[in-house]
Amino acid sequence: MILLQFLSLSVNILCLVQKLPQIIGLYKTKNVNSISISSVLLEEMGYTIVLAYNLWKHYPLSTFFEYVVLFIQDILLLFAIAKYSINEKDKRTTNRSKPLYGILIFCLYLLASLLGLVPKVWMNICTLFVIPISASSKILQLRTIITNKSAGQVSKIGWAIAAYGSFARIITNLYETNDMNMVINLLISFILNTSVVIVCMIYSKGPVPKLTNENRKKTT
């Protein structure tokens, strides 16, 4: 079907650059303002589970190719966050270990699943956990932006691409796999991704309040 081919191709192409604006922005500005570390970790956890599940089920690569790219891009994003998570007052690194430990755990889990070391029982039910994980990730990012009243280094383009990707994958999964666990997860992702885009637009010009000892706004 031409429509499905177009949707899959467009998602695969867009996912190649989905995280790049945010990654490039971090390396240019060297700060992680309004980026929730916990949100990125949860997001990568969801990507890891979905990627491992699709590989285990031997689904067509066209239905989950973007997760391969997004997994790699989030690894790069976590490296950037680890590098620039610095306390501006005393110049000591803060929260640097969380992204690095996350990278290690996610890579080991993916490797274990590829080697068949993950129990089949878990692989059959793991996608049920992706929905709350993915939703929590996006809710944390929404909370961070709203709390700081600024989009900071959060990329509107990246989240808009994510929203489109979720919508497109709802259609392709309905026709090609009919996996309702994946469809429900994608629907929730679409709603929350769109919400992040809207909030970013609202707070795109709002500065992040200066951190003080009395009133410190965290990025976790």
UniProtKB/TrEMBL annotation:
<feature type="transmembrane region" description="Helical">
    <location>
        <begin position="64"/>
        <end position="86"/>
    </location>
</feature>
<dbReference type="Pfam" id="PF04193">
    <property type="entry name" value="PQ-loop"/>
</dbReference>
<keyword id="KW-0812">Transmembrane</keyword>
<keyword id="KW-1133">Transmembrane helix</keyword>
<keyword id="KW-0472">Membrane</keyword>
<feature type="transmembrane region" description="Helical">
    <location>
        <begin position="183"/>
        <end position="203"/>
    </location>
</feature>
<feature type="transmembrane region" description="Helical">
    <location>
        <begin position="98"/>
        <end position="115"/>
    </location>
</feature>
<protein>
    <recommendedName>
        <fullName>PQ-loop repeat-containing protein 3</fullName>
    </recommendedName>
</protein>
<dbReference type="InterPro" id="IPR016817">
    <property type="entry name" value="MannP-dilichol_defect-1"/>
</dbReference>
<dbReference type="InterPro" id="IPR006603">
    <property type="entry name" value="PQ-loop_rpt"/>
</dbReference>
<dbReference type="GO" id="GO:0016020">
    <property type="term" value="C:membrane"/>
</dbReference>
